Amino acid sequence: MNVKEPNGQRSSPRALRTRYLYGPDSTNIIPEIIDGILHGLSIDKIHPDVYPYLHPEMALRQKKLMAEKNTRGVSTIKQAMNTIEKILQNKNRSHDENLAKLEHEDELREYGNYLAESEEKRKNKAQFTEEELHLGVQLALDEDFDELDPRMLRKLMPELRRLQKESIKNGNYLDAGRYQKAAHKISLLNTQIKYEEMTAEHAEELENRVINMSFDLARLKQKWNKKIELAQEQLDQDIKALIKEQRKKLAEFDEQFNSDVPLTYCKYTTLVADLRRKEEYLVSSKRYDEAHEMRERVEAQMREEEKTFRDKYYADLILKRDDFISKIEKKIRVRQDAANIQIDRLLVEKKREITQAKKALARFELESQQAEALASGTSFGLSASGSPTSSSRRNASVDSASRSARSTYSARSIRSYRAPFPSAEERSTEEIFRQRRAINNIIYTRTLSPRLPSIHRK
C-alpha cells in the first residue's frame, strides 16, 4: 500500500539532538582530533568537555606547522582555536552570571530572613505599628480571632477601650457597643490563651520531672545493684581469707603428729621397774644368761608401753583436731551468717527505697497524665448545662489537624487544640470560675519532686 506523503513542511519540526563524533571520553586521542580538524572536521562535532585538553595541543601543532611553513594548516588551526576560545569565554561568562545570580538570591534570602527575624523580635517585645493595631481592631470587630496574633491581645485591650470612650464622647453608641463587645471577647480570649499556656507549661514541667525521675530510678537501681555486688564480693574475699588462715593453723596443728610423744604421756608402769630390779639382781649374782633374758623382757615391756603412750597421744590429738575443725567451721559459719544478714539488710533497704521511688514516679506520672489531658482538652465549647455545643462537636473532628499547626503564631496555635471562640451564651459563670481557679493553682502552687534517698556505704 502506497502512503502519500503530506505536502509542505511540518508546522513544528522536531529538534534533532546534536551528535558528537568525539565524546567527553576522547581526551586520549587528541592528535587524531587535530588531524581531523586539519582535514575539515567541524568544531561542533567535538564535545565541549574536550576543548580544555584540545586547545593547548592545537597551539603546539600550530607552532609546528608554522615551522613547516604550512600556511593553510596554520590558518585552519588558528580559526579552530578562535572558535574554541569564544565558546569557552561564553561558557565562563554564563557560569559567572549564574554564580552572581545565585549569590544575589542568597543575599536576598538572607536579608528576607533578617527582616523576618527582626519582625518576630519586635512582636515578641509587644511592639506593633499603628497599621498592625488598626488591622487587629478590625479583626476583633469582625470576630476573626483565628487571624489575630496572640502577642497583640494585650495591646488591643487598651486600644479598644480608647476607641469605646471616643465613640461615647462623639455619641456613636452603636460603635461603642461594638468596641465594648470586642474588648470583652478579647479579654476572655486572653484569659483562655493564658490558661492554655500555663496548663501546657505545667504539663511539660511534670513530663520533664517524670523523665528525670525515671532516670533517677534507673540510676538508683544500678547503684544498689553495684553496692550489693561489692558487698557480696567483699564477703567472698573475707570468707576465702578466713579459710586460708584456718587452713594454715590446721597445718601447724597437724605437725604435732610428726613430733615426739611428750613426756607427760611417757609414764611406765611398776612392772618395768620390777623387771629392772630383777635384772640388776641377776647381774649382781653373775647369772648373765638369765639377766640377758630379763633385759629382753624389760625392753619388750617398754616397747609395748611406749606404743600405748603413742596411741593415746594420737587419740588425744585427733580429738583436739576434730574440736579445732569444729571451731573453725563455726567461726566461718558465724562470719557467713553475719555477712548474709548485712546483705539481707541491704536488700531490704534497696527494696524500700526503690518502692518509694516507684510510688513517687507513679504519682507524678498520674499528675502528668492529668495535666496533659487538661492541656489537650482545654476548650470553651461547653454550654452552661455541660453538653457540647454544635461548634465544639464540629471542631472535634479537626483536632488532629489543629495539633499539627502548633508552631505557627496565631490565636489558636497554643500547645493543644482549642475550639473557635464561643458566643457569650455558651459560657457559664461556673466554668470561668473553674478556669481561673486552675490558673491560681498553677501560679501559686509549686510542685516539688521527691528527693530520692542517697546511698551510704555501711
UniProtKB/TrEMBL annotation:
The keyword Coiled coil applies. The keyword Coiled coil applies. Residues 379-405 are annotated as: Disordered. It comes from the Eukaryota. Keywords: Coiled coil. Residues 77-105, 203-245, 347-374 form a coiled coil. This is Uncharacterized protein. It comes from Tritrichomonas foetus. The lineage of its organism: Eukaryota, Metamonada, Parabasalia, Tritrichomonadida, Tritrichomonadidae.
